[in-house]
Amino acid sequence: MSFDLASRLAERRAAHLFRQRPLLQSPQSPLVWVDGCQLLAFCSNDYLGLASHPEVIRALQQGAEQWGVGGGASHLVIGHSTPHHELEEALAEFTGRPRALLFSTGYMANLAAVTALVGQGDTVLEDRINHASLLDAGLLSGARFSRYLHNDAASLGSRLEKATGNTLVVTDGVFSMDGDLADLPALCAQARSRDAWVMVDDAHGFGPLGANGGGIVEHFGLGADDVQVLVGTLGKAFGTAGAFVAGSEELIETLIQFSRPYIYTTSQPPALACATLKSLELLRTEHWRREHLDKLIARFRQGAAEIGLQLMESPTPIQPILIGDSARALQLSELLKARGLLVGAIRPPTVPAGSARLRVTLSAAHSETQLEQLLEALAECWPLLPAEAAHG
Ligand SMILES: *Cc1c(COP(=O)(O)O)cnc(C)c1O
């Protein structure tokens, strides 16, 4: 008996699913150096252009001067410092929830929230294309786990009828690989009629969506009675790192007391919380970033439709071009790269089989000229893509 890793890797290569990490040799920005080439990138989640903002960098530097580098210990021991606490208070105020709790990553925040709320005898219902961290959290919880059809309140309703124990409905706010919005008004109404709670992971909605960047709940005007558990991540539009869960006093205290992914880990560096306090201020107040981004989104959709590309129902900076076949998605990505553009091909298992795509993401840091460069390159490359094989 042995671990036959070589043939697992060979199979993955043969299926055009082998993944390679591009080596980034410059800071986050529309223009990047990757593997020795300068490229115009449309694949970062830095939607508002805050990851390399001079004031955010300065806040991190000053935070390190004042608070040192390491968090030192877990929050419950001696790792919960003043910047963490101030950031939690600012995030609670920002989300209009009584309290917020800071985590080092979104993956951990999701594991923490789901596993603290449901267990054996309970039920967790998730959108079938939820982020992997939400699906993993559901499985880890030990609750009855079922996935409903994408964004389908009727499909959720039929599962709610069979639910037992405490029932948690879990959805992405903005779906990370499709860019569409969860139909929260309909999903929350279904949940309420069955006394289920709703948890929304709005990793991609905070920043771009809502009048003040408050994400999908601000967009739809939903309060803590509709969405009891609200998760945001800080590594995307906030441009820093970490995540938070916002909700009632009792929810947050429950996570502090019972949530293993919260209790048994070192706090994030306090200087990072200083940086996020600054980026939160910029995200809320610099409305021009959202306005410029909305203009870029509208222009991209119009230009892409003229080329004949298949877009998805997305009003967000995530604008996937649906290709289908993994090999063809890679080919289009390579053709663009040869013209100086970086757009990632997203393949199964990140997306369902047969739905490989180029995941174009737009940022407030892109200029209109850079967007035109992308559209011109797509217009050139799209006709060069070989036709799909009959059984590709
Ligand atoms: C990125 C992402 C996460 C994970 O957040 P990290 O802070 O990167 O661990 C969770 N949920 C969704 C929907 C995401 O897109």
Automatic annotation (TrEMBL):
Residue ranges annotated for the Aminotransferase class I/classII large domain, each copy included: 40-378
Biological processes, Gene Ontology terms: biotin biosynthetic process
Catalytic reaction equation(s): 6-carboxyhexanoyl-[ACP] + L-alanine + H(+) = (8S)-8-amino-7-oxononanoate + holo-[ACP] + CO2
Binding site for substrate: 19, 131, 350
Gene3D superfamilies documented for this protein: Aspartate Aminotransferase, domain 1 (3.90.1150.10), Type I PLP-dependent aspartate aminotransferase-like (Major domain) (3.40.640.10)
EC number(s) per entry: 2.3.1.47
UniProt pathway: Cofactor biosynthesis; biotin biosynthesis
Molecular function in Gene Ontology: 8-amino-7-oxononanoate synthase activity; pyridoxal phosphate binding
Subunit architecture: Homodimer.
Official protein name in the record: 8-amino-7-oxononanoate synthase
Source organism of this protein record: Pseudomonas pohangensis
Gene that encodes it: bioF
